[in-house]
Amino acid sequence: MSKIKVLIVGGGFAGVKAALKLVNHPEINLTMLSDDTSLRYYPTLYRVATGGSSAEANIPYESIFRDSNINLVKGVAKTIDRQNRQIITDEGKSYEYDFVILALGVVTNYFGIPGLSDYSFSIKSQAEAQRFKKHLHQQLIDTGRPDTNYLIVGAGPTGIELAGALPAYLKRITKSHGLDVKHLNIALVEAMPRLLPNLSKTTTRQVSKRLHQLGIKLYLNSKVEGQSADALTVNGRPLPSQTVVWTAGVTNHPFFKDNNFVIMGRGKVGVDAYLQTEPKIFVVGDNANTPFSGMAQTALHDGEFVANNLIKSLKGEMYSSYEVKKPTTVIPVGPNWAVVERGNFHLKGRLGSLIRESADLKGFKDLEPLGSATQQLLRQFSVEDYCQICATALARY
Ligand SMILES: Cc1cc2nc3c(=O)[nH]c(=O)nc-3n(C[C@H](O)[C@H](O)[C@H](O)COP(=O)(O)OP(=O)(O)OC[C@H]3O[C@@H](n4cnc5c(N)ncnc54)[C@H](O)[C@@H]3O)c2cc1C
Questions:
Q1: Ligand 1 atom closest to Cα of residue 15
Q2: pTM for this predicted structure
Q3: For ligand 1, what atom is nearest to the CA of residue 46?
Q4: pLDDT at 371
Q5: Is the pLDDT of residue 397 over 70?
Q6: Most Cβ neighbours (<10 Å): which of 103, 216, 296, 388?
Q7: Given the CA of residue 43, which atom of ligand 1 is nearest to it?
Q8: Residue 296: pLDDT over 70
């Protein structure tokens, strides 16, 4: 009997989770097509950007699917041929499916604001996090002083995590570069009247207070209008800076618009109670129009849900309906401090950061055996700067 061809497109949280559930199933011929060779563990990218090891946010597929029966293919999905049930890549290669799970994630959106795509930094990929980190060092080498302002646009979790980690990192590297810096201007720029508008006012208050303690300025109601090589224009006023990080906008992957999928609110793809958008085409994670789309926990939940339903259907059972799972939000802000929110439950401080560490360990363990997951967690203590001056200084301590 020929096997059922399941094709997963995208190897992030949702795609990998679905693959781990379906792998080695005797009735399934499983392929995962991704434009990468590793899973990007986004939640720790802010640490890579502030001196951490790149391995912290990078889990190679080879290590996740060790000895597993899966075809791992590197390629960029471009088109879906619904009639012939194929996904076609930008190189013209085609991959057939009986069932396809689309898990492509989101892309950065600059909302057409002039200059941002040319001059701002981002931390949405390894390469971008490394580029930002190199810039911080290079600027100290080139000018012999820190930037006038370090500006992070977007007071959502990513912007806040990065802002929280920057003071300690900048303090360390300016010292390594032999600079006696008394004060650093680090600011979060947010268009909305409050930070973390999707969370409770209690969390907003606690995080604002923590940022204040760390010396981070908060510009609220502040709309970015443009960027040049030396300044960010906010509410008509130029703020001098050569270090602007854009964390304020993402949009759904262009694959869906380009291939005429049904697009709903927030640009997400419309799905039914089985996360199916059309017969045998499933859309999961950040791509799907579900209430908590946009979080890693939702993506893992979606991947597992669709895989379980496919296994059910192979046994002749009916699909189960999707149940929304409310995620817990944990946001680290600076060393040994995190805020936790789940419904009406709030927590902050050192205990919050321990919760975050155990959540990361659980996240890694979901993807790898316990030994490798523990190693992955311990990478948070590694330093990686690619700066000779800092490496020499570090060796002296
Ligand atoms: C900096 C940052 C920090 C974050 N921190 C947190 C956090 O702390 N907690 C939390 O819950 N969420 C966090 N998130 C959100 C979370 O990472 C996402 O919700 C999650 O990654 C979504 O999973 P996904 O599988 O839908 O997409 P992704 O994980 O983005 O995976 C998409 C996959 O598709 C691949 N791909 C893209 N285009 C193509 C193509 N054309 N062809 C083939 N493959 C393609 C990509 O390489 C990737 O493997 C963060 C996001 C960012 C950017």
A1: 25
A2: 0.94
A3: 1
A4: 84
A5: no
A6: 103
A7: 5
A8: yes
Mean pLDDT, all residues of the chain: 95
Domain boundary assignment for the chain: 4-35+75-108+250-314, 116-248+329-396
Residue 237 to residues 146, 191, 203, 361, 396, Cα–Cα distance (Å)? 22, 14, 30, 44, 43
User: Which of 64, 162, 282, 295 to probe ligand 1 with, by most ligand atoms within 8 A of CB?
Assistant: 295
CB 320, CB 312: distance < 8 Å: yes
In CATH, what class is 116-248+329-396? Answer: alpha beta
What would the two tokens of residue 246 be? Answer: 């854009």
pLDDT tops 90 at residue 350: yes
Q: Which residues line ligand 1 (CB under 6 A)?
A: 9-15, 33-36, 42-43, 45, 76-77, 103-105, 123-124, 157-158, 253, 255, 285-286, 294-297, 299
Domain with residues 4-35+75-108+250-314, CATH architecture: 3-Layer(bba) Sandwich (3.50)
pLDDT in tens, 46-87: 999 999 999 889 999 999 998 899 999 999 999 999 999 999
